[in-house]
Automatic annotation (TrEMBL):
Keyword set includes Nucleotide-binding: yes
Entry-linked Pfam families: AMP-binding, AMP-binding_C_3
Protein name stated in the entry: Long-chain acyl-CoA synthetase
Species in which this protein is naturally found: Halpernia humi
GO cellular component, one term: membrane
Length: 590
């Protein structure tokens, strides 16, 4: 059957890849499996139940979950196949942002995962006229439960109405509104049609590496927020290929879950890759003695690995002694990790390839559904984000900005014709806001965010993201923000890797004190981090070199508003929070 609407993926999975463990969520310590048939049947129940509730095509329904879970996917299916528009929202945003999004989208009902979110949304409901009701996936005392909708739809006498609505839905119809988290200003509702997402799934599909493994054996672990278009598109892609989709319990339990499930595929963000490597490094060097020496020897081999050449004899030995353990730590079956959201360190990418854990780096935006380009096993260049998808027309504008046109590009922003007009060129190309170039083999390389580039008082342009990504390869640096717009030189605010620094201090008999503030005020700590940056500076132009740093005593998080939900820096928020440290860097008065 041709796939033109999002809900077609479910029927395709049932027709071609029926399995007992299509969706799997851990509840009370047990992995609860939902078969493909049960998934489709429950989706139909949700559709019938919503229609009995008075929901009509074009209405908006919010979906918010603290973790990815089976219920979210069932709701997504049931909502989409009756022409209703999903509005997936991050669980970590503020009440003010919830109110803005719900009011802007005119959300009628909302489904949330747990008690904490339910109580948060009760406060929102009081201030949003359109919001009629809130349902909870978990059993929460006093809260309407999503099973009430399933019960409403138990009688299949109205299935003909569902089928008629499915037939009436066009690929150009709006399927979802995704509000960009943004690093500044109010969120914008990105309008994505069925065609946008379906086109992106089908064009991305050839980039998936495959081995001759029965589809019934193929598993994935999903943990990046499914409300984000990257993981959501990947979810449809998994469905299209008949993979079993296991949902991780939490970011903290990924290590345990991956060893239990032993998946072949996972999506990652660069920060997770960095944390995985930091854990590997700490374990590899922690035992000391001969084992640590062998580990560091293997690391050197990985750093110098050339993917275009056969593995050396030393590499084969290192694989048996060291790299095989890296793979075991990720379940032992990984075929590939797919990385998006931000630039990945070339050094780490190379090392993971050397260790038999190939990372396929890609690039895209919410507005492009999301993939614009992605590497594949057949066509790969480390440091690039791969070649553009075959159905997209990607160009580099005169100022270096990447612009794109194609079937997965949004129609625009909801209720914001002015912002839509600003986002496109006169001839219809979407302006990504990213600077990059295409090489002679049509591989795309990202330089920086156009809006994040700044100019020093000496007139030199700085691309901070490139420097930051290189700096975060250091195990001493958890987060870093390069600053200096309009100043005489670049400097940086640095969040140290506190746990690692405590271990380092213990080994070197350095007294740090008990608090993060004391760690940040310790001159030896500051000198050690500066040493890491001095090494980086040796590879930068004089005008780009970080001249001074200040250490921040807090861990930068999504919850405190310093990072977006995809772990990108909220530059304005970071600068505002640490304005005293910023002023100290440049000798400004408060």
């Amino acid at each position: 059957m041709p796939i033109t609407r999002l809900f077609d993926f479910a029927q395709n999975a049932l027709d071609n890849f029926p399995k007992d463990d299509f969706l799997v969520t851990k509840k009370n310590g047990v992995w609860k499996k939902t078969s493909t048939l049960e998934f489709v049947n429950q989706g139909n129940k949700i559709s019938r139940g919503l229609l009995k509730l008075g929901i009509k095509p074009g209405d908006k329904i919010g979906l918010i979950s603290t973790t990815n879970r089976t219920e979210w996917c069932i709701m997504d299916l049931g909502i989409s196949q009756i022409g209703v528009i999903t509005v997936p929202v991050y669980p970590t945003i503020s009440v003010a942002d919830y109110i803005y999004i719900f009011d802007d989208a005119e959300i009628k009902y909302c489904f949330v995962s747990d008690k904490e979110l339910y109580e948060k949304l009760i406060d929102v409901q009081k201030q949003v006229k359109s919001l009629v009701g809130i349902f909870c996936f978990d059993d929460v005392k006093g809260a309407p439960n999503w099973k009430e909708i399933l019960d409403l739809g138990e009688d299949d006498a109205t299935q003909d109405e569902v089928e008629d609505l499915m037939k009436s839905i066009n690929e150009e119809d709006l399927a979802t509104l995704i509000y960009t988290s943004g690093t500044t200003g109010k969120p914008k509702g990105v309008m994505l049609t069925h065609r946008n997402l379906v086109a992106n799934v089908l064009a991305s599909n050839p980039r998936i590496p495959r081995l001759k493994i029965d589809y019934k054996e193929l598993k994935t672990l999903s943990f990046l927020p499914i409300c984000h278009v990257f993981e959501r598109m990947i979810y449809y892609l998994y469905s299209y290929n008949g993979f079993s989709i296991y949902f991780a319990e939490s970011i903290e339990k990924i290590g345990d879950n991956v060893r239990e499930i032993k998946p072949q595929y996972m999506t990652v963000v660069p920060r997770l890759v960095e944390k995985v490597y930091d854990t590997i490094y700490s374990k590899g060097t922690g035992s000391g003695g001969l084992k640590a020496k062998i580990f560091l020897w293997a690391v050197k081999i990985a750093e110098n690995y050339d993917i275009t050449k056969p593995k050396s004899f030393k590499h084969i030995i290192a694989d048996k002694l060291v790299f095989s353990k890296w793979r075991e730590g990720l379940g032992g079956n990984i075929l590939t990790l797919v990385s998006g959201s931000a630039a990945l360190s070339t050094r780490l990418n190379n090392m993971f390839h050397a260790a038999g854990l190939p990372i396929l780096e890609g690039y895209g935006l919410t507005e492009t559904s999301p993939v614009i380009a992605v590497n594949s096993f057949d066509k790969l260049k480390i440091g690039s984000v791969g070649q553009p998808l075959a159905n997209l027309d990607v160009k580099i504008a005169e100022d270096g900005e990447i612009i794109v046109k194609g079937p997965s590009v949004t129609k625009g922003y909801f209720k914001a014709e002015d912002k839509t007009a600003e986002a496109f060129t006169k001839d219809g190309y979407f302006m990504t806001g990213d600077i990059g170039h295409l090489d002679e083999d049509n591989f795309l390389f990202i330089t920086d965010r156009k809006k994040e580039m700044f100019k020093t008082s000496g007139g030199k342009y700085i691309a901070p993201q490139v420097i930051e990504n290189a700096a975060k390869a250091s195990k001493f640096i958890e987060q870093i923000m390069v600053v200096g717009d309009g100043e005489k030189m670049p400097c940086a605010l640095v969040q140290p890797a506190f746990d690692l620094i405590k271990n380092w201090a213990k080994i070197h008999h350095i007294s740090l004190g008990d608090s993060n503030e004391e760690i940040c005020n310790n001159e030896q700590v500051k000198a050690r981090i500066q040493k890491e940056l001095d090494q980086l500076n040796s590879h930068l132009g004089k005008w780009e070199q970080i001249k001074q740093i200040e250490l921040t005593p807090d861990v930068w998080t999504v919850e405190d508003g310093l990072l977006t939900p995809t772990l990108k820096l909220k530059r304005k928020a970071v600068k505002e929070k640490y304005i005293k440290l910023y002023n100290k860097l440049y000798g400004h008065s408060a």
